[in-house]
């Protein structure tokens, strides 16, 4: 690889991500704010059956990861699924897939930077929100400009914090259940003693809209957005034929432990009817411990106060992790698009540490503009931008599933032996596509019509841009 970097044109990424980096990047992609903060609304719609919803969505996400994993292990290149859509499907699918993913994480960057400001505000309300956002905007982009190893190390420790936090919560929750100190309401029978495991059925129309497991599936599925990051790391992973399969295969176990396992314990500790849209079961656990206090450095500290600070640190870490990964993945996607000829050539430029400098700078400029837009335009505009995040995520997953079908057809015709075959091909592809189409159908009748409408509009816009750009 180092020889390739000395060929005159510095256009080759280096493999600076080790096995532990890849493992924690994959794990970090599976654990985000969707687990810490996004469970409340879904729990209100479905009750305890939301646990089954996360298990089903996790299996679908795992199938998609295996499909992407097979492609990137076979050809560990920059651009990931955009490259494969370009090579095995056509120029426009490659163009659309790459730019769709890029805008997705530009918008996610905007949301996370805004959230970071609010989390800092919790401790220091005198600091303006834009100051906190700008500070971490500069820090994270500077880290990514240093080297891919610095990104990997940063994401490694961000993920460690999230993993330790969830494991601690699970262990503490088990202790509260077994010891009986979780309060009178804490019992495993909470999972079925109030209307059963499906207290709101599978799908029911109510005065306020829809409820039931299927009504919650859309927001549950979006909690797994980010798992595809493992595909972006392939071009910079050391020994990708070994590390990518290991990281991909372990995701299913992590989903079962960190999502399903944690939710079983947390729903046991607190009746599902006590959960509100603005809360999380993680918070509910500790509300049963009012009055508990202890001494810390000679000062009496309320347990709830400590937990509030710890939870704020965790969600801040989750937001920084997502933004860090957004900066990394966006720059690599732009680099890959430039290599395909679907983006300007200057985006292929690497610095002395083989980092795509121009791609990072351009992405960060757009993310910064989005922060300004967020502060200047009415809330409705921000709402539509966030709706586009949902639309682009669905497009991304569908394109991975279909591109994998084209990829398999091509290598099978050539008699090429796959190094990391996906599970249950091609049935798993059709299951994933059908599931995602079902999600779109549910969204269209459960108050998320704008996200569905935006999909053909956005694809049409990308097609116009593709025709105007006329890539070679």
TrEMBL record:
Keyword match Membrane: yes
Q: What is this protein called?
A: Aromatic amino acid transporter AroP
**TM segment ranges:** 21-39, 45-65, 127-144, 156-178, 210-230, 251-272, 301-323, 355-376, 382-402, 423-444, 450-469
**Keyword list, A-Z:** Membrane, Transmembrane, Transmembrane helix, Transport
Q: How does it sit in the membrane?
A: Multi-pass membrane protein
Q: Which GO terms describe its cellular component?
A: membrane
Pfam families attached here? AA_permease
> What PROSITE patterns does its record include?
AMINO_ACID_PERMEASE_1 (PS00218)
InterPro entries (alphabetical): AA-permease/SLC12A_dom (IPR004841), Amino_acid_permease_CS (IPR004840)
Q: Name one GO biological process term.
A: amino acid transport
Task: Please tell me where this protein is predominantly located.
Answer: membrane
Domain Amino acid permease/ SLC12A as annotated: residue spans: 21-470
Q: Does the keyword Transmembrane apply?
A: yes
Q: What does the UniProt entry say about where the protein is found?
A: Membrane
* Coiled-coil region list: none
